[in-house]
Amino acid sequence: MTPVEKDPGPRPSLILSHPGTLQLLYGIFAAAAGAGYETKLWTGYFFDERGHIERLAGHLPGRLGARLQRELRRRQSDLVPAEQVVRLPLLEFGTVAALRAFRRFGPLTRLIGWRNAIFDRLVAAKLRRDPPSIVMPVDSAALRTIRAARAVGTRSVLNQTIGHVAVGQRILAEEAELQPDWADSMPARMPPDLIERARGEALEADRVLAPSDYVKGTLMEIGVPAERIWVLPYGVRTDRFTPAQPRGDRSWPFRILYVGQISQRKGLSYLLEAVRRLGRKDIELLLVGSIVGSGAGLRRFQGRFRHLDNRPHAELPELYRSADLFAYPSLHEGSAQAIMEAMACGLPAVVTANAGSVLREGVEGHLVPIRDVERLAERIEELYRDRDRLAVMGAAARRRAEEHDWSHYRDGLGGLLATLAPR
Questions:
Q1: d(CA 284, CA 273)
Q2: Pick the CATH number of 13-235+406-418 from 3.40.50.300, 2.115.10.20, 3.40.50.2000, 3.40.50.720
Q3: Over the stretch 371-389, which tens digit does the pLDDT of each residue have?
Q4: What pTM, to 2 d.p., does this model score?
Q5: SS3 10
Q6: N or C: which end of the chain has fewer CB within 10 A?
Q7: Distances (CA, A) of 142 to 45, 90, 165, 174, 302
């Protein structure tokens, strides 16, 4: 007699919320769904070909329509079914338009804080009407959500995507004094109420999900018990980010690549100075990303780098494959996804511990202290001179990325969520 399988019943439900854009969010969504949770994403905007906004953009003529479509598709992923997304596009489009109109961090910080507070309030209201089993809001847009979850018996996991703002402000305030030309590229002074709200989120959530030991350290510094912090490095699409084909002897410049915001929070002045000190005409530094602030700090390095503005995520693999070495000397980070993508493309990297990478010193590249121009220059020149070691580290970087793909993240996230048994 064939045994009757027990009906497992309905799957537990999870709401993942983020007011803005974060490519990582789509991988986290797929990981939660893969771990067995009925998952929905609440966000400002997500591309849906059937949506009114997208159809309107498709009817716009010429370059205007093509440009708008390209911008909208930056928030698209085959990992997330559009029908599982709740969108608040007017809030997000208004914020994006205002962000592009301002350059100073004071107005920008207040604007993003306003958006996040409204979004947090809307998610909290949704929870009270239709509570899921678990809610996972992002840092700086989570306090009301976490409190609403507690009121209705929903468990909360704070998705802490970057080191805590209280610690970050201290580092960046120091940096603004050290590098005044770059001061307008980083938020050195955060509103006190934002810092306190972020502190409350971390202290009140049932669990805090941190992508790196660096983030965990900043959380413990503000008083979050270590046992409530779950460290889980982000995954990477190893099917999309793949190494270049062997190229044989190279005749073009040795290319160092950086991908991310052009901001001193990323420690870029130290990378630029390291390349300048090397003084080699056959070393090219390519910076890819939007310039934050006035760009005044870049002026004294003219001729030492090339710059490309933001590129859609789908265009990044070819950029990584065009490079020899990846650099990311960040001062305050969560776990820079660009490093994982570069490693998956077979690039060794030179990064700081504050960048939150899974890279191991001397294996997949090098770890350097923050603000250490001399060490940066030494490590870059070492790999420029030793192409055999560069190749060995590149192969190791690919293997390390394969150990941290999204299936690894799914298993780790499933383990965390399993600790949140219903009350």
A1: 13
A2: 3.40.50.2000
A3: 999 999 999 999 999 999 9
A4: 0.90
A5: coil
A6: N
A7: 18, 20, 14, 28, 41
